[in-house]
Design goal:
By secondary structure, this protein is mostly helical. It folds into 2 domains: about 1-105, no CATH class; about 120-220, no CATH class. The protein is built from 9 helices and no strands. It has helices spanning about 1-25, 30-45, 60-80, 85-90, 110-140, 140-150, 165-170, 175-200, 205-220. Residues about 80-105 have low confidence and may be disordered.
Protein backbone atom coordinates (compact mmCIF):
# COMPACT_ATOMS: atom_id res chain seq x y z
CA UNK A 1 0.00 0.00 0.00
CA UNK A 2 2.81 2.42 0.89
CA UNK A 3 4.63 1.70 -2.38
CA UNK A 4 1.42 2.16 -4.35
CA UNK A 5 0.91 5.52 -2.64
CA UNK A 6 4.46 6.60 -3.49
CA UNK A 7 4.11 5.46 -7.10
CA UNK A 8 0.89 7.43 -7.51
CA UNK A 9 2.30 10.58 -5.94
CA UNK A 10 5.55 10.41 -7.88
CA UNK A 11 3.75 9.89 -11.19
CA UNK A 12 1.75 13.00 -10.46
CA UNK A 13 4.75 15.12 -9.41
CA UNK A 14 7.39 13.66 -11.72
CA UNK A 15 7.19 16.36 -14.39
CA UNK A 16 7.05 19.08 -11.74
CA UNK A 17 10.30 17.80 -10.21
CA UNK A 18 12.05 17.52 -13.58
CA UNK A 19 11.08 21.08 -14.50
CA UNK A 20 12.07 22.34 -11.05
CA UNK A 21 15.61 21.00 -11.46
CA UNK A 22 15.77 22.24 -15.05
CA UNK A 23 14.91 25.77 -13.91
CA UNK A 24 17.60 25.68 -11.22
CA UNK A 25 20.18 24.37 -13.70
CA UNK A 26 22.91 21.84 -12.91
CA UNK A 27 26.09 21.64 -14.97
CA UNK A 28 26.65 17.91 -14.43
CA UNK A 29 23.12 16.81 -15.30
CA UNK A 30 22.33 17.15 -19.00
CA UNK A 31 19.29 14.92 -18.46
CA UNK A 32 17.24 16.36 -15.59
CA UNK A 33 15.05 13.26 -15.59
CA UNK A 34 18.07 11.36 -14.21
CA UNK A 35 18.30 13.89 -11.41
CA UNK A 36 14.60 13.54 -10.69
CA UNK A 37 14.99 9.77 -10.57
CA UNK A 38 17.81 10.11 -8.05
CA UNK A 39 15.61 12.40 -5.97
CA UNK A 40 12.74 9.91 -5.89
CA UNK A 41 15.08 7.01 -5.10
CA UNK A 42 16.55 8.98 -2.21
CA UNK A 43 13.05 9.71 -1.00
CA UNK A 44 12.23 5.97 -0.97
CA UNK A 45 15.56 4.83 0.48
CA UNK A 46 15.25 7.14 3.46
CA UNK A 47 11.53 6.37 3.84
CA UNK A 48 10.80 10.08 4.02
CA UNK A 49 7.07 9.42 3.77
CA UNK A 50 7.33 8.53 7.46
CA UNK A 51 8.14 12.17 8.19
CA UNK A 52 4.97 13.51 6.58
CA UNK A 53 2.83 15.25 9.18
CA UNK A 54 -0.64 16.19 7.84
CA UNK A 55 -0.90 18.73 10.63
CA UNK A 56 2.00 20.71 9.18
CA UNK A 57 0.64 21.21 5.68
CA UNK A 58 -0.09 19.41 2.42
CA UNK A 59 2.11 16.79 0.83
CA UNK A 60 3.09 19.25 -1.91
CA UNK A 61 4.60 21.60 0.67
CA UNK A 62 6.60 18.73 2.16
CA UNK A 63 7.75 17.50 -1.25
CA UNK A 64 8.74 21.04 -2.16
CA UNK A 65 10.90 21.40 0.96
CA UNK A 66 12.60 18.06 0.28
CA UNK A 67 13.24 19.01 -3.36
CA UNK A 68 14.81 22.31 -2.31
CA UNK A 69 17.11 20.59 0.18
CA UNK A 70 18.04 17.94 -2.38
CA UNK A 71 18.87 20.69 -4.89
CA UNK A 72 21.22 22.24 -2.32
CA UNK A 73 22.87 18.86 -1.89
CA UNK A 74 23.45 18.47 -5.63
CA UNK A 75 24.93 21.96 -5.85
CA UNK A 76 27.34 21.16 -3.01
CA UNK A 77 28.25 17.87 -4.70
CA UNK A 78 29.01 19.67 -7.96
CA UNK A 79 31.42 21.85 -6.01
CA UNK A 80 33.14 18.79 -4.53
CA UNK A 81 31.82 19.44 -1.04
CA UNK A 82 30.25 17.09 1.46
CA UNK A 83 26.69 15.90 0.93
CA UNK A 84 23.88 17.46 2.88
CA UNK A 85 21.40 14.67 2.30
CA UNK A 86 21.22 13.00 5.66
CA UNK A 87 17.67 12.60 6.84
CA UNK A 88 18.09 15.49 9.27
CA UNK A 89 19.14 17.92 6.55
CA UNK A 90 16.58 16.69 4.02
CA UNK A 91 13.73 17.17 6.45
CA UNK A 92 14.90 20.44 7.99
CA UNK A 93 13.17 23.65 7.00
CA UNK A 94 16.31 25.71 6.46
CA UNK A 95 19.45 27.04 8.10
CA UNK A 96 21.90 24.71 9.79
CA UNK A 97 24.45 22.89 7.65
CA UNK A 98 24.48 25.29 4.72
CA UNK A 99 24.68 28.58 6.64
CA UNK A 100 27.55 30.78 5.51
CA UNK A 101 28.34 28.62 2.46
CA UNK A 102 28.66 30.44 -0.84
CA UNK A 103 26.17 28.89 -3.24
CA UNK A 104 26.95 31.49 -5.90
CA UNK A 105 23.63 32.65 -7.34
CA UNK A 106 21.62 29.64 -6.26
CA UNK A 107 18.01 30.74 -5.53
CA UNK A 108 17.19 31.44 -1.91
CA UNK A 109 14.43 29.52 -0.12
CA UNK A 110 11.57 31.71 -1.29
CA UNK A 111 12.79 31.84 -4.89
CA UNK A 112 13.23 28.06 -5.01
CA UNK A 113 9.75 27.51 -3.59
CA UNK A 114 8.25 29.93 -6.12
CA UNK A 115 9.96 28.01 -8.94
CA UNK A 116 8.56 24.73 -7.62
CA UNK A 117 5.06 26.15 -7.28
CA UNK A 118 5.06 27.52 -10.82
CA UNK A 119 6.15 24.17 -12.22
CA UNK A 120 3.54 22.39 -10.08
CA UNK A 121 0.81 24.68 -11.41
CA UNK A 122 1.96 24.20 -15.00
CA UNK A 123 2.10 20.39 -14.72
CA UNK A 124 -1.24 20.21 -12.91
CA UNK A 125 -3.00 22.28 -15.57
CA UNK A 126 -1.41 20.28 -18.40
CA UNK A 127 -2.53 16.99 -16.86
CA UNK A 128 -6.07 18.27 -16.29
CA UNK A 129 -6.23 19.64 -19.84
CA UNK A 130 -5.08 16.34 -21.36
CA UNK A 131 -7.69 14.46 -19.31
CA UNK A 132 -10.37 16.99 -20.29
CA UNK A 133 -9.59 16.68 -24.00
CA UNK A 134 -9.60 12.88 -23.81
CA UNK A 135 -12.91 12.93 -21.94
CA UNK A 136 -14.46 15.22 -24.55
CA UNK A 137 -13.28 12.96 -27.38
CA UNK A 138 -14.59 9.80 -25.69
CA UNK A 139 -17.99 11.40 -25.04
CA UNK A 140 -18.35 12.91 -28.50
CA UNK A 141 -18.09 16.42 -27.07
CA UNK A 142 -15.23 17.72 -29.18
CA UNK A 143 -17.09 21.03 -29.49
CA UNK A 144 -16.56 21.55 -25.74
CA UNK A 145 -12.81 21.23 -26.23
CA UNK A 146 -13.02 23.62 -29.16
CA UNK A 147 -14.89 26.37 -27.33
CA UNK A 148 -12.68 25.89 -24.28
CA UNK A 149 -9.57 26.44 -26.37
CA UNK A 150 -11.09 29.41 -28.19
CA UNK A 151 -12.60 31.16 -25.18
CA UNK A 152 -10.89 30.00 -21.95
CA UNK A 153 -7.30 29.01 -22.63
CA UNK A 154 -4.77 31.86 -22.81
CA UNK A 155 -4.20 33.11 -26.34
CA UNK A 156 -0.72 33.67 -27.79
CA UNK A 157 0.72 37.12 -27.36
CA UNK A 158 -0.64 39.64 -29.89
CA UNK A 159 -3.39 37.17 -30.89
CA UNK A 160 -7.07 38.02 -30.68
CA UNK A 161 -9.48 35.80 -28.78
CA UNK A 162 -12.36 34.42 -30.81
CA UNK A 163 -15.73 36.06 -30.34
CA UNK A 164 -18.86 34.07 -29.60
CA UNK A 165 -20.18 34.99 -33.03
CA UNK A 166 -17.02 33.68 -34.71
CA UNK A 167 -17.19 30.40 -32.80
CA UNK A 168 -20.88 30.07 -33.63
CA UNK A 169 -20.09 30.40 -37.33
CA UNK A 170 -17.10 28.05 -37.04
CA UNK A 171 -19.15 25.34 -35.28
CA UNK A 172 -22.40 26.00 -37.16
CA UNK A 173 -24.20 26.78 -33.89
CA UNK A 174 -26.14 29.69 -32.50
CA UNK A 175 -24.36 32.17 -30.21
CA UNK A 176 -26.56 30.99 -27.31
CA UNK A 177 -25.48 27.39 -27.90
CA UNK A 178 -21.83 28.47 -27.90
CA UNK A 179 -22.29 30.30 -24.59
CA UNK A 180 -23.90 27.22 -23.05
CA UNK A 181 -21.07 25.02 -24.30
CA UNK A 182 -18.49 27.41 -22.85
CA UNK A 183 -20.16 27.23 -19.43
CA UNK A 184 -20.35 23.43 -19.50
CA UNK A 185 -16.83 23.02 -20.85
CA UNK A 186 -15.41 25.26 -18.14
CA UNK A 187 -17.25 23.28 -15.46
CA UNK A 188 -16.01 20.00 -16.95
CA UNK A 189 -12.42 21.24 -16.96
CA UNK A 190 -12.69 22.38 -13.32
CA UNK A 191 -13.91 18.88 -12.41
CA UNK A 192 -10.88 17.36 -14.09
CA UNK A 193 -8.61 19.85 -12.36
CA UNK A 194 -10.06 18.89 -8.98
CA UNK A 195 -9.57 15.20 -9.79
CA UNK A 196 -5.89 15.79 -10.54
CA UNK A 197 -5.44 17.73 -7.31
CA UNK A 198 -7.41 15.11 -5.34
CA UNK A 199 -4.82 12.48 -6.27
CA UNK A 200 -2.21 14.20 -4.10
CA UNK A 201 -4.19 15.16 -0.98
CA UNK A 202 -5.88 13.28 1.84
CA UNK A 203 -9.27 14.98 2.00
CA UNK A 204 -11.79 17.01 0.02
CA UNK A 205 -11.07 20.01 2.25
CA UNK A 206 -7.44 19.88 1.12
CA UNK A 207 -8.60 19.89 -2.50
CA UNK A 208 -10.14 23.31 -1.98
CA UNK A 209 -6.99 24.54 -0.23
CA UNK A 210 -4.85 23.36 -3.14
CA UNK A 211 -7.24 24.87 -5.66
CA UNK A 212 -6.86 28.20 -3.84
CA UNK A 213 -3.08 27.77 -3.88
CA UNK A 214 -3.23 27.03 -7.60
CA UNK A 215 -5.16 30.24 -8.23
CA UNK A 216 -2.64 32.22 -6.18
CA UNK A 217 0.28 30.81 -8.16
CA UNK A 218 -1.42 31.50 -11.48
CA UNK A 219 -2.23 35.05 -10.41
CA UNK A 220 1.40 35.59 -9.41
CA UNK A 221 0.74 35.79 -5.67
CA UNK A 222 2.64 32.66 -4.69
CA UNK A 223 1.65 29.19 -3.53
CA UNK A 224 1.18 27.54 -0.16
Amino acid sequence: MRRECLDRLFRQYHLTIIRFFRQLGFANYADRSDLAQEYFLRFIEKDLLEHVDPGKGCFRAYLKAIARRFAYDVRFREKGRHSLTGVSSLTSSGGGADEGIDLDEFPDENQAEDIFDRQWARSTLETALANFRRDCAERGLEHWATVFERHTLPVPQDANRSTVAESAEFLNLTPKQVENHITRANACFRDHLRKVVRMTVASDAEVEEEMMALRRVLSGNGGG
